[in-house]
Amino acid sequence: MGNVNRVIFWVFIPSVLLFYIVFRVVEWQNYDDGGRQLISEQHALNLSVRDDIDCLILGGSNAVFSLSAEQMSNQSNLTCYNLSLLNEGFSDGAYFDFIRNLAIERTQIKSIFYSSVIPLTNTVFLDRLESNQSQIGISGDGRVKFQFTGRSLASYLKDFLQDKPPFQSLQYPMPTPSGDFNFDEFDGCQREKIRDEWIPVTIDEDFKQWLGDNLLTVSTLFPNANISFVLPSTLRSQLSEDDIGKFSDTLESEVVSNSAHYIAQSTFSDVSVLCDGTHHANANGREIRTSELLLLMQNR
């Protein structure tokens, strides 16, 4: 019995631990960007054959999923393109460099709708500042640090049995010719995974600096554009209307002080209009949110 225990202690347990560490290293080295780099290249290709764009949607995944440039173009006198990126390009420098290098006549852009959830969550804001320091690229490469925890081995086994490629994350579709998210090519909407956890940022000097720098960058890139900073629709069931109203008023003051317009969109009604997150609409929710944005734009 003693020999069995020694084998377990000195051979079996170290072997399992070594296997686990090696597996996590392989997982870390096989980072998959979910198609983000290819999506950015498709945007560049789309815009290289367009000379009629006078309106851009900027921002992160909230705008990727929940705003439609095609709908805005059809229902207004604007010709819009949705240039928002998942994770808002991971860092401000990477996102704005991507925009700066596109084949687009920036002086003919008359309207910018910059929609960001960063003001709505302190954790994301702090992560953004860290990503800016680390200069993470738009594919997110280098963002993922080695860690001992991760996807369960059972989930990898499930993928193997279903003949799915190992280490492949959720893949996002290529944008449409107007830059919109192509829901017809996406089957990843999972409302059961939605978690409604919003804690707005503290509008302190760090946030004011971030907001001012980004609005200045946008206005420099597009000197003839009217810039609207959009507080996007989210579910926000955990926040009272009074709290979000006070926060929105303070944010509006900061936006206006930076010579931009401010548009605050309403909360999503319920999860039936969402895809896989409280700020990610499905096709129906996108139509609703885009219609509201057009109405707010006309009434401001």
From TrEMBL:
The chain crosses the membrane at residues 7-26. Keywords: Membrane, Transmembrane, Transmembrane helix. This is Uncharacterized protein.
